[in-house]
Amino acid sequence: MKRFLSLMVLLALVGCEKPHDDGWLGYGEGDFAYISAPQPGWVTEMGVERGKLVRRGDLLFVLDDAQQQASHDQAQAALAQARASLTQERSNLSYAATELSRQDNLAKAGAGTPSQRDQALTQYQQSRARIAQLEAQIRQMTASLGGAAYTLSQRRVVAQTEGPVQDIYFRPGEYVPASTPVISLLPPANVYARFFVPETELAKVHLGQQVRISCDGCKPMTATITFIAAQEEFTPPVIFSVGNREKLVFKLEARAPGGLPLHPGQPIQVRAL
Fold first, then answer.
1. Residue 85 in 3-state DSSP?
2. What pLDDT score was predicted for residue 235?
3. Which residue of 90, 131, 132, 144 shows the fewest CB atoms closer than 10 Å?
4. Mind giving me the DSSP string for 15-32?
């Protein structure tokens, strides 16, 4: 008798189960932007905190710049000295040109000596060569100064994208190796939907297809399928179909221009349009 009653209760519960509504379950996902410095150094200043909305050009963090500042100042001083030498050599060239012209006039009048004219010509030619050499050095030094200025500017890392700060991995007083993330951001355009379609329903979807996404407390939104996994996988533990019958699913992603107003990990339901 007890077995009969238990069976009747189980059948009643199964009968109350909601029918499948052709929706697929998933969650919001985001591609985080990990902001690193191209050079190693000590963090001296942090311009943001977790949760702050960052705009392009905002200061994120600062690394110590004593060495880079010294290199920049040295390159600047060397360039200034080379320019001063160029100015002096141009004056020398002007004097050498005047002296050569005078010797030419004396030679025409038969009053000069060949050795004096040859000496004036040699000084004129040497001065021109020296000017060409200094101009080449100045071009090279100008490029070196530009490189030093750029290296110095990289000690102050500014945002090249926008979005809320998700995490901060180093604080002032800590040493950061080169190319190591210091801050992570989540650009709004990088937020998308990830959902799972049972193997038996894969034929209903294709790349470029539009889907309708809904979630608790949010307005329905439209996105486009941009990715379909090539290999099936077992249903993730946190994703269950209404009937909990499908065991093999395919992972899909859907995106919208400017991103989707979702939070990573937020449960969603997706339906084909």
1. helix
2. 60
3. 132
4. HHSPPP-S-EEEEEEE--
